[in-house]
């Protein structure tokens, strides 16, 4: 085999590989990233902390200016920096181009002083932004750095009733063990056991089958939930113990309709007391789980199941509210029928319909009003999807980061000066015809185009016939030498 055919590919293979790379890029970055969200004001949106521009403090005594940028700025302005994905935060305004990130200007917003896009810096950041240790790349009460390569199991985001200033967590992400005050298992503690049990694993239907490498890796990544922690399918949201303590009025909803039982946080000083409470807590969670599953299978039993729960927890009060025709019972505020709030420090786990079961009487609604997430489901802002159609590309409306390379080229061409665009198209057509003539024999024979072929072709375009002859002779000698050595 000649040297010029090694590590080469046909034109069709090259185009196919480029299209696959572009498809992979669109899957990883599915949205357009040519517009900063700062002009849109506070949004619930995906944000990213830039540790290059705002490095975390090396010690508690060091100061740190927390900041985060929107999806578009994370790519267009900080694409080569070290970023930490914080996922969605509510009521957040992008900090890119503000005094919180003085070292990197925003390249997407309009600079008011120059009336040109880009080089925006020194703007005033939004005063409404709230920050926590997530912006320094740390999460959970354990203040751990999240490493997706080493992290085992699932982390859960708190609904975030309170900010750090309120005593809450500010929509922090939590390990299940940390919510319960339990020590987290280290990877070295679980790996030997998994190695011993990896030969045969039951699948979801209960049949025994040999585990494949991918199955083993998935099981290693998914650490089991600690005893007493609800199953992931049994709840939609959680409110951590920090936020529950900051707004204790919500404690009375534990174990009520739309809420699972309290999951207590084990304090170091009350280990003996909590041990005796762990089993009831687990039973309450399991009971809620079974009720939820039963309700999904037997839709008509929801009313009777809820009444039974009220009878068991409310005693005589529940019996007095049973007749649905009694007007005074209907007018009685819900909070007067709730039992006393459980004691201790605990987190709340919320079902999908939890918003329907809050008391909204004149006395209780002021507690709900500051927390819009408790009143209605939140929608997160998403930039437009980057798959622009052909018409958009031809009209020059395709974004810098949207569409294929061909579409982006056409979009840029349509935005050029008309005379320069025509001249560019003429040069391109002239070069295209010549390259097409050069590639035609390769396409017909299926022979790949090597680096030496391309080098010789462009030497011919320059008129360097002697260079072509020498290149051809050199390639032939190389072939003969390689054949002689075999």
TrEMBL record:
Show the SMART domains listed in the entry: ZnF_UBR1
Note whether Metal-binding occurs among the keywords: yes
Annotated region (Disordered), positions in chain: 180-230, 261-339, 379-406
Q: Which residues form the UBR-type domain?
A: 34-111
Q: Which residue stretches does the UniProt record annotate as biased composition, category Basic and acidic residues?
A: 191-200, 272-281, 291-313
Q: Which GO terms describe its molecular function?
A: ubiquitin protein ligase activity; zinc ion binding
What PROSITE patterns does its record include?
ZF_UBR
- Name the residue ranges with Acidic residues bias: 379-393
Comp. bias intervals (Low complexity): 314-331
Q: Which UniProt keywords apply?
A: Metal-binding, Zinc, Zinc-finger
Organism taxonomic ancestry? Eukaryota, Fungi, Dikarya, Ascomycota, Pezizomycotina
Q: Which GO terms describe its cellular component?
A: cytoplasm
The species is Aureobasidium pullulans
Q: Where are the zinc fingers (UBR-type)?
A: 34-111
Which protein are we looking at?
A: Zf-UBR-domain-containing protein
Task: Name the source's superkingdom.
Answer: Eukaryota
Q: Record's Pfam families?
A: zf-UBR (PF02207)
């Amino acid at each position: 085999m000649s040297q010029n055919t090694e590590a080469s590919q046909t034109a069709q293979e090259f185009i196919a590989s480029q299209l696959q790379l572009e498809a992979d890029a669109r899957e990883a970055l599915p949205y357009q990233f040519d517009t900063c969200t700062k002009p849109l004001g506070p949004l619930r949106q995906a944000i990213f902390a830039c540790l290059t521009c705002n490095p975390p403090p090396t010690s508690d005594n060091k100061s740190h200016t927390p900041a985060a940028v929107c999806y578009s700025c994370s790519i267009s302005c900080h694409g080569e920096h070290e970023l930490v994905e914080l996922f969605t935060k509510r009521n957040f305004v992008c900090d890119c181009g503000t005094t919180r990130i003085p070292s990197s200007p925003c390249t997407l917003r309009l600079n008011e002083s120059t009336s040109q896009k880009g080089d925006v810096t020194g703007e005033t950041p939004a005063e409404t932004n709230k920050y926590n240790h997530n912006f320094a790349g740390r999460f959970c009460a354990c203040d751990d750095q999240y490493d997706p390569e080493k992290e085992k199991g699932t982390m859960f985001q708190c609904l975030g009733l309170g900010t750090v200033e309120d005593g809450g967590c500010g929509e922090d992400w939590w390990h299940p063990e940390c919510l319960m005050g339990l020590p987290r298992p280290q990877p070295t503690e679980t790996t030997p056991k998994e190695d011993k049990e990896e030969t045969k694993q039951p699948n979801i239907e209960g049949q025994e089958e040999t585990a494949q490498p991918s199955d083993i890796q998935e099981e290693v990544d998914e650490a089991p939930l600690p005893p007493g922690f609800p199953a992931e399918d049994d709840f939609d949201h959680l409110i951590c113990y920090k936020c529950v303590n900051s707004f204790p009025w919500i404690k009375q909803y534990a174990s009520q309709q739309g809420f699972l039982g309290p999951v207590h946080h084990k304090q170091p000083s009350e280990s003996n007391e909590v041990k005796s409470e762990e089993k009831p807590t687990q039973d309450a969670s399991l009971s809620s789980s079974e009720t939820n599953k039963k309700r999904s299978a037997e839709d008509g039993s929801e009313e009777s199941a809820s009444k039974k729960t009220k009878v068991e927890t409310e005693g005589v009060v529940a019996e007095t509210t049973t007749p649905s025709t009694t007007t005074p019972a209907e007018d009685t505020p819900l909070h007067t029928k709730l039992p006393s709030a459980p004691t201790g420090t605990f987190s709340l786990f919320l079902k999908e319909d939890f918003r329907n079961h809050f008391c909204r009487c004149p006395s209780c609604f002021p507690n709900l009003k500051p927390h819009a997430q408790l009143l209605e489901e939140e929608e997160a802002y998403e930039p437009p999807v980057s798959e622009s159609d052909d018409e958009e590309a031809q009209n020059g409306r395709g974004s810098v980061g949207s569409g294929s390379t061909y579409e982006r080229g056409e979009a840029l061409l349509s935005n050029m000066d008309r005379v320069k665009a025509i001249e560019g198209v003429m040069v391109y057509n002239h070069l295209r015809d010549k390259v097409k003539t050069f590639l035609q024999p390769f396409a017909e024979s299926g022979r790949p185009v090597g680096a030496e072929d391309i080098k010789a072709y462009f030497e011919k375009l320059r008129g360097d016939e002697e260079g072509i002859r020498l290149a051809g002779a050199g390639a032939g000698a190389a072939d003969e030498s390689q054949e002689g050595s075999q």
